[in-house]
Records
---
Amino acid sequence: MLNGFTKTDDKKEKSKKEMSFIQNFKYWFPVILCMSFIFWMSTGQFSAENTFLIIDPILRFLMPFISPEKADVIHEIIRKFAHVTEYFILGLLLFRAFRSGSRELRILRWCFYSFLVIVLCAASDEFHQSFVDTRTASLIDVGIDMLGGVLALGVSALWCISRQQ
């Protein structure tokens, strides 16, 4: 016994630290993966020209008589929907990570922190795209990204509230 602590106390403390790391890893690793995926999607590989090479043949197969103008519009809608989807998933994962299995109801705090990360990620994603020759940075895309994140936070908050009742 040293300073009132026994070796058993040291083992318990070490076990708590290991459990805390595993717990944090469990909640934050999916967030890091999602952010990495978003960063990868903002490279030149996913420029409008490259995604059109995939989407256009599918559109032409499904709608053989579609005009090139309509195909362009549908392509743009699909690309914007991808923004919403990516950030919806990120929003869900961030809310889950900030919540970290807590039994306490701190929905506003979890939403606020998640929203801050979503805004930073969306802005940095567009900033990154400004350095890619085949991509363009757009504040509208930041707004679309934020919309996906806010939708996810709304769903997460409602889910938490419904589970508490």
Note: The chain has a mean pLDDT of 88.
---
Amino acid sequence: MAVLCLAVVATVSARAQESGEAAIRALELKMLDCYKLRQVDVFAAVLDDDFVITFEDGSTYSKTGYLSYSASSSTHVELAEIGEMKVRMHGETAVVTGVYHEKGVDAQKEYDYRDRFTDIWMKKSGKWRLVAAHYSVPKK
């Protein structure tokens, strides 16, 4: 009986982890689309109130600062994509790593960024919230 209970608990736990991973992957892709289309209100709801992001140059923004930055009308994102996405679940926390590629025009100048990223998600009050993000430029 004890072995059966352990097997059931392990199966339920594995399914919950897979479900969490699928939810995080979907949220990452939704955030990507919303960023590209500057639908700031949509991804504002997913960012934790204490959210912080660190960019390649070391600058950091809070939730409010990042939303203002993302809403900039001088930037037109033509391409935004994620590759090599890996989601690691740790209970109610998820760590996402991957490759980020963005191409567009900012202040009438073309740009093409290729970064590595790390996103940290936490489940709060039953909803996944992005609490931190970090971008860095890989060595060539």
Note: The longest helix spans residues 2-36.
---
Amino acid sequence: MFIKFNTLNNLLDKFQQRPYLNICSNIQGMNMSSAKAKCVDGEACRVRVIHLDRVERALRETVSGKELNRLSSIYKVLGDPSRLKIVMALRNVEMCVCDLAAFLGLTESAISHQLRRFKDLALVKSRRDGQVIYYALDDEHVAELLNVGLAHVTE
């Protein structure tokens, strides 16, 4: 069950209704290495404890719903291997639709459709040179996102 807590008091009110949870406001006073707090099979703890300082920090650092939706859209778009190949191809060189279609073996129409989605999310930008439109990654953040993900999977 997912519950959204706007304030720490709201959090306390919700969990006071659940007697099976312990609320610990002073972590320094607890011996977290005790057998009660050790995890079983590395997945679940034997004791349900709410660490208020950690929850409060997470609440302070919460990202807005609008930002979460936008970030989710970016990851959804990058979650498709064909689309990911397009942006990976644009990491170091700008390319036109014809170049990308030849590189991926897809139709120019399919490439154009994907590039429109990328532009809507500010992942790619375009530059006109005469009758040819070249595409490149929008900024260094996009390249960094791709490089960090690639480094993670190749470790």
Note: Residues 126 and 135 are 4 Å apart (CA to CA).
